[in-house]
Amino acid sequence: MDNCYQFSAIRGTQAHRAFYVAMLPYGSVAKVLGAAATTNPKRGRPVNKARIPALAAYLQSATDGHCVPPIHVMVDGVMRFETADFSRSVGKLFLEVSATLDVIDGGHRIAAISKALVDRPGLARETLPVCFYAAAGAVAAQEMFETINEKAIRPARSK
């Protein structure tokens, strides 16, 4: 692959399909996934711009610690994984630059990260996990979104 993104990653398996988790710096998240963050409404939740300022403010002000959940992305294009010499699960993930990246979950987080970076560029070095899955069609993407958002078991609120 001549023109590609390259990330250190870990390969996992779910439902007999490989997926990859890479730790991306916020700056890369904004650049690589920013355009894809407008999420296809048939596959995910459209980005509600009213939610962005509060999350961006949280990222900008939480200097002692903040927690941002993983972003889930389907890749429609060439994706290759090369294992490291010492492990079958650790290696490098290569994504063709021309691949279509479809954000299944995390559009609001990506938009908030982009906004937070404007006022606090030092956040560009913070990282968060991004899960990459090979595209498996619209039905699989919708099922993934529903699993993440609608079928998740919420913990009881503490008193």
Question: How would you describe what is shown here?
Answer:
With 159 residues, this protein is α+β, with helices and mostly antiparallel strands. The chain has helices at 26-33, 52-61, 107-119, 138-149, and strands at 4-14, 17-25, 71-76, 79-84, 87-96, 100-105, 127-134. It has 4 helices and 7 strands; from the N terminus they run E-E-H-H-E-E-E-E-H-E-H. Strands 4-5-1-2-7-3-6 form a 7-stranded mixed sheet. Helix 1 (26-33) packs across helix 3 and helix 2 (52-61) crosses helix 3. The chain is globular and about 40 Å long.
Quick structural summary:
27% of the residues lie in helices and 35% in strands. The chain is α+β, with helices and mostly antiparallel strands.
Terminal-residue CA separation: 53 Å
Coarse structural class? alpha+beta
Radius of gyration: 16 Å
The average pLDDT is 83
SSE string: EEHHEEEEHEH
The unreliable regions are: none
Largest β sheet strand count, sense and barrel closure:
7 strands, mixed
In what range is the share of β-strand residues? 35-45%
**Total of DSSP H or I helical runs spanning 4+ residues:** 4
Count of strand segments: 7
| Largest sheet, spatial ordering of strands | 4-5-1-2-7-3-6
Detail the topology: elements first, then pairings.
Blueprint: E1 4-14, E2 17-25, H1 26-33, H2 52-61, E3 71-76, E4 79-84, E5 87-96, E6 100-105, H3 107-119, E7 127-134, H4 138-149
Parallel strand pairs: 3-7
Antiparallel strand pairs: 1-2, 1-5, 2-7, 3-6, 4-5
Helix pairs in contact: 1-3, 2-3
